Amino acid sequence: MKVLNKDELQIAEGILQTHLPKSYKVYGFLYGINRNKESTLQVVVDSWPGFKVIICRPDPKDLTFLMHRCSKKCLQKDKSTTEALHWCISCICQISATCFHHLLTDLVNKTWKFGGDEKGYWNIKNLISNFPSCCITDIQGQLVAWMLVYNYCALGMLYTLPEHRGKGYAKVLISTMAKKLLSEGYPVYCFIEEENKVSYSLFKTLGFIEDESYRAAWFEFNF
To answer: Strand 70-77 to strand 189-193: parallel, antiparallel, or no bridges (unpaired)?
Structure first.
């Protein structure tokens, strides 16, 4: 096994790009790493440059590696689809102020099904600090809905507070974030749990297409 250096990571990203969408997750990790996003991962291959196996693994100094057990469908944005929604998005804000960082991190950690602890808090804080995030606030400036981007560049953690649902906020967040990511060169895709029919229908409505041959599985390991 070989650990890739900075120059080799750039080459590997280009190779993986030719194998989308099945290479999306590792490609997303490399996309972030190659653009100086904070990461503790090592990227290893079975051989170089003609690798057949590529793995993103935790830094050996980090003895805990967690992945959640579930099966998810992969949906990617169809770039040929013209966005039909016309929203007033003056309430959309790019998270940048320190106070919003803290508030959003706390809210996401409390509402995310895999959060709720210190590890979840620091993971979410890292995502907000290093990757695009957006939110919707009410007229009092209180956060009511948000969406983040995982460190493998997939859209995720979409959430609307229960008392504000049914107002189309999720559509605004997805369409706004997709346009922003496309404009900045990010891959635009997401994973949706197979039983989550509501989210699946929502993303399909907004122009995402499913690769029916591809399923991603998450497992939890403790080392």
So the answer is: antiparallel
List the beta bridge partners of residue 148: 156
Buried b (16+ CB within 10 A) or exposed e, 12-30: bbebbeeeebebbbbbbbb
* pLDDT tens for each residue of 59-113: 766 544 444 444 577 788 765 443 333 333 333 444 434 446 788 899 999 999 8
| CB 189 within 8 Å of CB 155 | yes
The structural domains of the chain, ordered by start, are: 2-58 (no CATH), 77-215 (3.40.630.30)
Written as one letter, the residue type at 218 is: W
Using alpha carbons, select from 85, 91, 79 the residue that is nearest to residue 205.
85
